[in-house]
Specification:
The chain is mainly alpha-helical. It folds into two domains: 91 residues, Rna Polymerase Sigma Factor, Chain: A; 67 residues, Orthogonal Bundle (Arc Repressor Mutant, subunit A), CATH 1.10.10. It has ten helices and no strands.
């Protein structure tokens, strides 16, 4: 019983850690801390994966592969590097890179399944990815953007990354990331509200 009480206490203590403290805890005890990393950052990684893949099943696979890749990286990197890690942008970047790798692998196969979108307002405890951006018209317009703009808008407004984190994830300068975000949002506005288009 004492072992169970100790485990429950350590799990609930991890749930209240700041991101920096969680990284430090992961540097000391990766196996004990990684479930909290998945619990805390799983929803954002899954949300990004749904918007990248378009289908829940593929998104689940992508999110799982991303966390597997992250775990393997954390096992091999020095503890001091793990202690300074910012999990949210790092995990989103891993998901983005995993998706790019999947695209390269599947580049000769055409997509055959349509995109799935949520149509109802989110219920309490509902899957957040299903409702971001929430409107099927917005999701279709987002999917129609050129890839650099789509990824920049997705990372900034769906994953909630800062402009500098978007730039880091996309491997481009911050000014370029800002430009992609701005152009993507302008294109979305024009598509969704043609009356707002410049004349």
């Amino acid at each position: 019983m004492a072992v169970l009480t100790s485990y429950v206490t350590s799990v609930s203590a991890r749930a209240t850690l700041s991101e920096a403290d969680l990284a430090a805890a992961a540097a000391e005890d990766l196996d004990g801390t990684f479930p909290e990393v998945v619990r805390r950052y799983g929803p954002v990684v899954y949300t990004v994966a749904v918007r990248l893949c378009g289908q829940r099943a593929d998104a689940e696979d992508l999110a799982a592969a991303s966390f597997e890749r992250a775990y393997r990286a954390l096992r091999t990197q020095p503890a001091r590097q793990t202690a300074g890690l910012r999990f949210r942008p790092w995990l989103v970047t891993i998901a983005l890179n995993q998706w790019r790798n999947q695209l390269r692998t599947r580049s000769r196969r055409p997509a055959t399944a349509p995109l799935e979108f949520g149509h109802d307002p989110p219920a309490a405890g509902a899957d957040p990815a299903e409702h971001l951006p929430g409107d099927p018209a917005v999701a279709c317009a987002l999917a129609a953007l050129p890839q650099p703009q789509r990824l920049a808008v997705l990372l900034r407004h769906v994953a909630g990354l800062s402009t500098s984190e978007v730039a880091l994830a996309l491997g481009c300068p911050p000014g370029t990331a800002k430009s992609h975000i701005s152009r993507g949002l302008t294109a979305l506005r024009t598509t969704l509200d043609p009356a707002s288009a410049p004349t």
